[in-house]
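F.,

This is the one I mentioned.
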């Protein structure tokens, strides 16, 4: 069968041959055994319901072995034999251009060049899944190939519940991931209910099909590092010769060394997984690899002396770096961490003094001891960081729950008040007041034709639009505009594309609408093919996350999730092609609610109407909330938005004179 026939086949009537487990691939860690005997039986029954009864006797022992060995039922036998990558949109079967675009994005999320653990359908973050198993993938792709624009596909945590009658202005797909009853959102609840096959961790852009590889975060990381450099600059100098130390070379964290190069500093990024390091080095996202901490120190001293711009992957544990550099007086200018501490007990953070293999074995066979090792390592890391910050290092939490988990481990990480952390979240210090409160966030697009020339054309269009907008932009956002113009001009030369022909930049509502409209006009003129619009959930409006996206909300509402829910509801009836809402994300299961969207531009008037309506709401919902929280930058942005659109009328807070409380 050809590719289209295999998509339309869905779950095959005849069983495919079992597949050998390929040890050379980057597989998800084995999950701990958390189900009792009755629950194991239930998990097996849940898995077998996807298949005709005639296959149950054959599949039962196979699925039981997967559950015992890996802690999950992935259904490896049913992974299709075709290659996974974002094909040109015309190569997908179907009646709906919108549905074909979603198939393209799903396959991009599972491209081995993009995905962290593709065999387990995990895109990034150690557990950020597109689907729970291969039956769900097959069935979903079949539904998308069969649907028309009067139907909506409903997705429950990776499971396609089915096609429902709908209408052309409704979303083609509505996705929910991990929507638990609140009292069942502890980490072990995820382990249990995911093992049962009834929920999944969609991360932020994995389970919503909007991941575009590490480029999706490299721009935001570049802005963060640049602005962190501006905060520590003594006389307006740049980052030349300054050292940035961090960790993680996985799906999202892998952007850090590339961002460091673009920002112009020396970057040391530690990674314990050799395959992740090899992947980033092969892709050119990190310049050098060193596995000896003394050799690393010598290389850094040389780079400082020569004011080199270089990124170095340390193949080892970041705790070694923090401690050795402290003992040997190697000054760190900027420090952070981007290991997946939202998932600390199942592969998101590896303790020092255990090999990668030993850690993977312990987390499955002795999870209690593994937890103790992780917490001991966090305490050591925090102690070493404190030594550096006492000498002037600027350390910031990168929204990966490092400070949160370190505090839970008993590390010396709290301020004198015993409530807040010693170090700010990067959102509190940088992205919140400098970007989100002004409406700037990670707007992205994918050229569905798969053509390099389409990506180049869209880069040119975006640059032209931004230059025009900058001419009339108020002084408050001139820096943001200039950073983005510089970014987009250098995007091609930095070779940022991994997987789909995608691009990202930070834009406000006005910028997103104008860029999207210019794309739609170009599609209508036949200059480029269809374009998929989207954003990271890490944005102005889509995510309620008290330790990251909304950490600079100080009116007491940062632990509420009204904004994220309103975001997805509003997007769904204003023209989004698909919407998604997730429990969990970069900071952990039960710690965040985040929502996203995707939109297909087809070059017609209907697409223009949808983009204008939805993109305006998608940003200004968040501006309204941030303004009401009394964030002065957001109050400015809210008033400006009302001037630009008279139909917008927001409730503006009255400021209280603090001397009244004296």
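My design for it:
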């Amino acid at each position: 069968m050809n590719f289209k026939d295999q998509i339309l086949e869905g779950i095959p009537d005849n069983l495919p041959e079992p597949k050998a487990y390929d040890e050379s691939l980057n597989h998800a860690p084995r999950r701990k055994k958390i189900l009792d005997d009755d629950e194991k039986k239930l998990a097996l029954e849940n898995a077998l319901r996807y298949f005709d009864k005639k296959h149950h006797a054959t599949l039962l022992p196979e699925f039981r072995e997967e559950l015992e060995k890996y802690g999950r039922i992935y259904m490896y036998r049913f992974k299709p034999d075709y290659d996974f990558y974002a094909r040109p949109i015309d190569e997908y079967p179907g009646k709906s251009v919108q549905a074909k675009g979603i198939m393209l994005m799903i396959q991009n999320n599972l491209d081995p060049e993009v995905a962290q653990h593709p065999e387990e359908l995990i895109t990034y973050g150690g557990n950020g899944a597109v689907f729970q198993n291969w039956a769900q993938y097959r069935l979903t792709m079949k539904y998308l190939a069969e649907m028309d624009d009067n139907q909506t596909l409903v997705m429950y945590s990776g499971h396609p519940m089915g096609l429902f009658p709908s209408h052309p202005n409704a979303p083609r797909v509505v996705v929910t991931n991990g929507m638990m009853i609140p009292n069942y959102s502890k980490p072990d609840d995820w382990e249990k209910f995911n093992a049962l096959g009834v929920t999944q961790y969609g991360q932020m852009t994995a389970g919503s099909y909007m991941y575009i590889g590490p480029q999706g975060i490299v721009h935001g990381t570049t802005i963060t590092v640049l602005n962190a450099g501006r905060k520590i600059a003594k006389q307006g100098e740049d980052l030349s010769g300054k050292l940035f130390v961090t960790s993680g070379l996985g799906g999202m964290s892998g952007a850090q060394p590339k961002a460091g190069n673009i920002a112009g500093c020396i970057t040391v990024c530690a990674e314990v997984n050799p395959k992740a390091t090899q992947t980033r080095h092969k892709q050119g996202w990190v310049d050098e690899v060193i596995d000896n901490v003394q050799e690393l120190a010598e290389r850094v001293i040389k780079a400082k002396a020569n004011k080199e711009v270089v990124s170095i992957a340390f193949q080892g544990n970041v705790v070694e770096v923090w401690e050795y550099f402290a003992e040997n007086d190697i000054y760190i200018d900027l420090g952070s961490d981007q290991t997946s501490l939202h998932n600390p007990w199942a592969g998101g953070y590896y303790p020092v003094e255990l090999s990668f293999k030993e850690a993977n074995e312990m987390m499955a066979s002795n999870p209690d001891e593994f937890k103790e090792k992780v917490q001991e390592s966090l305490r050591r890391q925090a102690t070493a960081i404190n030594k550096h910050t006492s000498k002037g290092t600027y350390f910031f939490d990168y929204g990966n729950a490092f400070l949160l988990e370190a505090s839970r481990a008993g590390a010396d990480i709290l301020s004198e008040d015993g409530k807040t952390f010693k170090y700010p979240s990067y959102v509190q210090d940088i992205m919140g007041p400098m970007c989100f409160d002004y409406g700037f966030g990670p707007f992205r697009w994918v050229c569905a034709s798969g053509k390099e020339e389409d990506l180049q054309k869209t880069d040119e269009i975006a640059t032209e639009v931004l230059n025009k907008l900058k001419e009339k932009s108020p002084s408050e956002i001139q820096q943001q505009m200039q950073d983005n113009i510089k970014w987009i001009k250098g995007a091609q030369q930095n070779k940022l594309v991994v997987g789909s022909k995608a691009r990202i930049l930070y834009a406000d509502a006005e910028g997103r609408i104008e860029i999207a409209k210019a794309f739609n006009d170009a599609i209508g003129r036949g200059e480029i093919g269809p374009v998929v619009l989207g954003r990271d959930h890490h944005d102005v409006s889509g995510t309620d996350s008290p330790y990251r996206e909304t950490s600079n909300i100080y009116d007491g509402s940062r632990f509420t999730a009204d904004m994220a829910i309103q975001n997805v509801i509003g997007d769904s009836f204003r023209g989004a092609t698909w919407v998604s809402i997730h429990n969990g994300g970069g900071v952990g299961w039960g710690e965040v609610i985040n929502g996203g969207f995707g939109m297909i531009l087809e070059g017609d008037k209907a697409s223009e109407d949808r983009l204008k309506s939805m993109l305006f709401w998608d940003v200004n919902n968040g501006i309204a909330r941030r303004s009401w929280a009394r964030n002065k930058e957001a109050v400015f942005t809210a008033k400006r938005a009302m001037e630009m659109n008279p139909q917008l009328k927001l409730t503006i807070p009255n400021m209280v004179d603090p001397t009244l409380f004296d």
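The chain is about 40% helix and 10% strand.

Talk soon.
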